[in-house]
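Reopening this ticket.

The earlier resolution said the output was attached, but the attachment link was broken on my side. Pasting everything inline this time so it's all in one place.
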Amino acid sequence: MFVVQKNQKNMKLFALKFCLNLGMLTMEDYDALDERDKAAAILQGGFLADREENGLMVQLYSVGKFYGEVYYDPLANKILRWRAFEGTQQLGPYLAHIRFNAR
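Inline output:
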């Protein structure tokens, strides 16, 4: 039984990484994941930016066809929560952190 569960988990993780690498993971796929796999999906995405909010470090990732945020408490060294969203309207807080080289 344990071997079967471990193999199922490995296959699930493989499928998740495969979809992420191809940029195929959708919000519907993400919503169907359990909480642990939702966090893993975001962290497997491409890191884009970070910002500070109320003492927390908020990191932005590109995850398939949507974005994900991870809320990290540096004092407790712990991820407190994560969330996913589609579209670009919620990217506003990160715009101030983009630096352009002026020539």
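Reporter confirms the inline version is readable. Residues 2-95 form one domain. The mean pLDDT is 81.
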